[in-house]
């Protein structure tokens, strides 16, 4: 089960380190897939470099991804979660939009759920014509119900099937409110909710730039904001560089996001982002001498 960890993001911002146990993630696929020792070594490295949360993901959600079955996702993430839990005292997040995976991950020791579909995973799977008979049992819970019953924090991500908007910023805010309403209806408390503007999900290049620059509008909803720009296409397109040459751009988005009101940053390169984040934080909060 989840542990009793306390993180005060009002005192200082937090880095969430990414651990992808997939064969096909866009920037680090295969590094830790079926390699528990390598995964553990990476967790140790990230925590030593400043990560306060580790986000474990078993399915790539790169553009055009094909969902894997619940069983396959569980086979990827549960052994790693159990191994981390035995060795490290660090909050763990499960990066999934499938309720059954989230439930099993919390049972195995995860402390947080990172849902890129904001309680709408069942609709996303239907849209993608996902065929997994384990979803058809009447005992399957909704993601919102899992979050309500376990009491763990949840990252409510913004996503759509297509990047079509009438009023971009207002539509994003309305989508997030609808997701939060789904959570409330199932019993999720406001104190559990963190929102993610969903950089890279159903947004054009210019929309990704805009959403990062206007995080303060999302912060006005009253929930902590997580920002995840690390190694994403918006950085590659901005710098006109290859996938492996985006570190400086990723770090820049962390500092910009911090200034705009984000307080949790989901990143691959922990050391550089942590150093930039904490340096900016200290300057931003310096007192008159």
- Largest pleated sheet: 8 strands, parallel
Give the low-pLDDT segments: none
Shape summary? globular
Q: Share of helix among residues? A: 40-55%
**First CA to last CA: what distance?**
46 Å
The radius of gyration over CA amounts to 18 Å
**How many individual β-strands?**
8
Structural class: alpha/beta
Strand neighbour order, sheet with most strands: 6-5-4-3-2-1-8-7
Question: Strand fraction band?
Answer: 5-15%
**Average of per-residue pLDDT values:** 90
Helix count? 11
- In N-to-C order, the SSE pattern is EHEHEHEHHEHEHHEHHEH
Q: How would you characterize the overall build of this protein?
A:
- This protein is of the alpha/beta class.
- It is 44% helix and 12% strand.
- It has eleven helices and eight strands.
- It has an eight-stranded parallel beta sheet.
- α6 (168-186) links the parallel β5 and β6.
- α1 crosses α2 (70-87), α3 (99-108) runs parallel beside α5 (143-150) and α5 crosses α6.
- The termini are far apart.
